[in-house]
Amino acid sequence: MFNKKKQPPIKSLIAEGTSITGNVCFADGLRIDGEVTGDIRSNDQSSGSLLVISETAHVVGTVTADHIIVNGSVRGPVYAQQVLELQPKARIEGDVQYAALEMHQGALITGKLRPLFEGEEKPTLKLASNSK
Predict the structure, then answer these.
(1) Could you tell me if 75 and 59 are in contact, meaning their C-beta atoms sit under 8 angstroms apart?
(2) Which residue ranges make up each domain of the chain?
(3) Which of 6, 47, 97, 103 has the fewest CB atoms within 10 Å of its CB?
């Protein structure tokens, strides 16, 4: 409805207080509340993937998924194959590639923004409203 695809379920959680060193590969959805030092990549090519990096999360490494929501910190490049949502407390130190971008006031990117072009179509930019 309203031209939005149903998001995949979040089946995995890296909880607050948990620290992982090494690469993480996930299917469907993953929520990170803890710390990850290593690359995070979706292995789900068919139905899309959802990665949520919460306010308490810290990630150092390359992040790749279809739909990425960030409200924590990421140090490394971010590749959103479909949508990148940056919540108010998002902090990214690295280059960002996206098909569509939603950025709330307060989010910060230290790096280059590069849209993913499919053909000649320009990427969608959506301004987040300040209303609650």
Answers:
(1) yes
(2) 10-116
(3) 6
